[in-house]
Amino acid sequence: MSGAINENVEKLRKYRIFGAKIERLNEMGLMFPKEKKSFEQKAQKCRDIMKSIERSISDVDDGILSEILFQKYCLGRSLEAISLAVNYSKRQIERLHLVALRKLKL
Predict the structure, then answer these.
(1) Per residue in 59-79, pLDDT tens?
(2) pLDDT in tens, 6-39
(3) Is residue 49 a contact partner of residue 11, using CB atoms and an 8 Å limit?
(4) Rounded to an integer, what distance in angstroms lies between the CA atom of residue 31 and that of residue 72?
(5) DSSP calls for 22-76
(6) With CB atoms counted within 10 Å of each terminal CB, which end of the chain scores lower, N or C?
(7) Do 106 and 13 contact (CB within 8 A), yes or no?
């Protein structure tokens, strides 16, 4: 894969990490009420980044390419599971995944 595609993949992988971080920050706010506001602000930054990633994914197209990216990086599904869900061959999903990564602008 090219450098730009690798950068996109790394940014996309952070989506699920930010989701876990939001949960942790919410728990920290309960444990440390005096610092709750700070934790809420950090959680909001994570939500903003996640929304930005979702917008970038939906901007790729209105069809299969954005669906592949969403299922892979937001839902954490394998390319094989995606191929079954959308009724495409695994090989075709692999090809479309690379096309989608090339079109993605993060």
Answers:
(1) 999 899 999 999 999 999 999
(2) 998 999 999 999 999 999 999 999 999 999 999 9
(3) no
(4) 33
(5) HHHHHHHHHH-GGGHHHHHHHHHHHHHHHHHHHHHHHHH-SSHHHHHHIIIIIS-
(6) N
(7) no
Three-state DSSP at 105 gives: coil
> What is the C-alpha to C-alpha distance for residues 10 and 15, in angstroms, rounded to an integer?
9
Q: Terminal CA-to-CA distance of the chain, rounded, Å?
A: 17
Q: Does position 1 have pLDDT exceeding 70, yes or no?
A: no
Given a cut of 70, whether residue 80 has pLDDT beyond it is yes
Q: How many domains does the chain contain in total?
A: 1
Burial of 98 (0-12, 13-18, 19+ CB in 10 A): middle
Q: Report the length, in residues, of the chain.
A: 106
Question: In angstroms, what CA-CA distances link 23 with 16, 17, 18, 30, 31?
Answer: 11, 10, 9, 11, 13
Range of the domain at 11: 3-103
